[in-house]
Amino acid sequence: MLPVSATICKRFLHLTLKMSFISVAPDSDFPIQNLPYGVFSTSANPNKRIGVAIGDYILDLSEVKHLFTSAELQHAFEQSTLNAFMGLGRSAWSEARQTLQKVLSESEPVLRDDAVLRSRSLVLQNHATMHLPAAIGDYTDFYSSKNHAFNVGCMFRDPQNALNPNWTHLPVGYHGRASSVVVSGTPIRRPNGQTLPDEKSPPVFGPCRLFDFELETAFFTGPATLLGNPVTMEKAEDHIFGMVLMNDWSARDIQKWEYVPLGPFLAKNLGTTISPWVVTMDALRPFIAPNMTQDPVPLPYLRHADDYNFDIKLDVSILADGMNKPAVITRSNFKYMYWTMKQQLVHHTVSGCNINPGDLMGSGTISGETQDSLGSMLELCWKGTRTVDLGNGLTRKFLQDGDEVIFHGYCEGNGYRVGFGTCTGKVLPAHPITC
Question: Quick check: pTM over 0.85?
Fold first, then answer.
């Protein structure tokens, strides 16, 4: 039990951080405990600038940069992306968070009592256009949910050989296409490509028939490393800035034909959608969950005794043509990750691969242990043998043109939530075939 004085201090700190002079609804994703970063513009000011979400508002950091004592932070918040800020490292991230929580608290007059500064710096979110939060130089996608990997292995092999021999020894991943990472709300066009509908006949070219989503998260990296210098487990947390939701759109029939021997290509490069708000690891720290038991025990460079898993509730909805509201089709949780973000980063760089501020690293599809917690249509419809009920007689096996896929994720606190907002994309028809 804490001493009385420590208990009082802890409660006082909780109350201080809980209250902002800006009204925040209990079910808002963006209380003062969160303060995620994003990049936005408005019709009145089309320049891209860095903001922080608080309730229904965005705090424009370019307008309040003078409130930060660090010249490095002031410079970083003048930029049109988060890359410079990400590159400053954990001490700067913590300093910025402390300043923001103070400035936005109900007891601090500097912004609360300055009507002119408030009018310049606070923008309603529904008046803003969100952009990619960083210039993404490199994008890597992992395959780190054991439930998902086992399910896919059962479909295409058998339960006894569902996991490939390397899967429990290292975080499997592949290098994706950074140029086609887009911000939430960007439509995604159904791809054309080669498929093999009949294994006894030659391949055909045409629109993907088995279009899918993959429920993922991703993290952005912080300070750069030099080529040849791995990130050790002891330093891994210093290079993980924050997390977003991610939809790794997948063309399953194209993927099946093309992936041997080098893995994903056209089935994945058609588009990857991320949520616009980056939730920092400091905001997520109260929601740390136990790491999954790893058997066999990983090699020494991949071991860490501290927990670095997170209790993030995730759900996926589909809004189809003719529907009045989206239908939730799955509920999962980030805590089902087998390999942690620290293990992913350490393994990624153990070869000497360098990282830069704003590199994006996806989790891989996050599936739970039950039918209603699976993270892709491939699993929900079990390779086309089942249907997914959207209500009112509508069903799906894979995505149809016009379907909007909506991800939501949040952590549940005591009377508040730390959330990511939404990650959405609507499926457009494939381009007409002209050849």
Answer: yes
